[in-house]
Amino acid sequence: MIRSVLTAVSVSALVACAPGRVTERASDPAPVAAQPAAAPKPAPAAPEPVASTPAEHFGAPFAEQVPEVSLGALIKDPSPYAGQVIETTGKVSQVCQAAGCWMELAATDSGERVRTPMAGHAFFLPKTVVGKQARVQGRVELIALSDDMKKHLEAEGAEATGSKLSLSALSVSVQ
User: Fold this and answer.
1) For 81-104, how does the pLDDT look when each residue is reduced to its tens digit (9 = 90+)?
2) Are 160 and 113 in contact (CB under 8 A)?
3) In angstroms, rounded to a whole number, what is the distance separating the alpha carbons of residues 101 and 38?
4) Of 50, 57, 52, 51, the residue nearest 129 (C-alpha)
5) Is 95 in a helix, a strand, or coil?
6) 23, 24, 48, 85: most buried by Cβ count inside 10 Å?
7) How many CB atoms lie within 10 A of CB 73?
8) What are the structural domain ranges in the chain?
9) CA distance readout (Å), 19 to 23, 25, 36, 101, 117
10) Which is the CATH superfamily of the domain at 56-174?
11) In whole angstroms, what is the distance from residue 140 CA to residue 19 CA?
């Protein structure tokens, strides 16, 4: 019996001393709760990264070691690149409304456009790529269009039919 009384008193003493435990004293009018330490302020959250739209790829895989030429420089003087495969970038300003078999690629600095057929109908672009940035690898061609071909392309929405320059796209990536 004495042992159980001592055990009860010991347990009571341990419980009363436990941290965060409300204790009462006869002289205190109300119970006092242990105050937790002030929690450190969390670091400000880093801004969430802006999700970029994944690129859509059309045509053959991009080849390595293809010379990059600015579209503006190509339009200004295409003759040094005639027959060569080059890589360039620009904004898709127009896409064939019938099948997506060509696009017009506009230089970002001047807005001038180059006809860009999809490698002899080897692949097609969706009409939804208008306004997107495009990376293109293609063969530079300097061939004047016949009047019939101009009319055909213009009926599909083309505007850049007066130039001999075209870039026959082998690979296109739009974003």
Assistant:
1) 999 999 999 999 999 999 999 999
2) yes
3) 66
4) 57
5) strand
6) 85
7) 13
8) 56-174
9) 10, 16, 10, 76, 78
10) Nucleic acid-binding proteins (2.40.50.140)
11) 80
